[in-house]
Known about the structure:
- The chain is α/β, with parallel strands linked by helices.
- It has helices at 19-28, 64-74, 90-93, 157-169, 184-187, 200-211, 226-229; strands at residues 2-5, 38-41, 54-55, 58-59, 79-82, 98-101, 104-108, 113-116, 121-124, 127-131, 176-179, 216-219, 236-238, 243-245.
- Residues 53-61 have low confidence and may be disordered.
Amino acid sequence: MxxxxxDTHNEIDVSNxxxxxxxxxxxxxxxxxxxxxxxxxxxxxxxxxxxxxxxEDGIHPRNGTDRYLxxxxxxxxxxxxxxMGNHDNYDMIQRLPQVEMFGSTALKLSxxxxxxxxxxxxIIEGKSFLVLGGAASTDKAIRIPHVSWWEQEEWSAGEIKRxxxxxxxxxxxxxxxxxxxxxxxxIQCIENLDGLMPDPTVKLNDExxxxxxxxKWFFGHWHSDWGYENFARSAYVPLYHKGxxx
Length: 246
């Protein structure tokens, strides 16, 4: 069973993925919390955030928050799969070792925590997932490059080309799409787009949305659980503190 939820932001109080919160969401959907095998965080996972060098023994967070959270996740009975958001340390993420997972490759943070790469297709428990990610930070003007903001939050032109080339060669039908910010059609369910800063990642998601077919599109970023209450009738499911089981 796969549990999908929203941003966690490297916080000690990870209330949306506490055992109590997850049990409540599972009970609402008529499933058993103990059957969760994978937890998906839809970007802004925020771990690692500080100096996390890689050596032969793996990742050793030097900051207390990183160290506490990594142990917290590694002690869980399920595997944690994070997307890349806009409040993530891309310099650290890009240094993580690649491992083969779910018919593609992922980035390994610890024995139990992995990053799914954007632009990849994964088969998890027999379900196909198209993984996107990233978003433009509206507050980047007050952030510090490579300290609290990373330009890699937006897809590069080369990354976009390689992704669409791959999409042209492969199938365009998936069970689920996972992203950090959503496509316009999904965002409009929860936010008025008029006057908002244009986001190239949303435009990219719109282009993807016009080319592929899927059952549901899950996204975070907007700190909204609108999609949780409207899951059955909407193709777009924004999540934050609650979770959906698929």
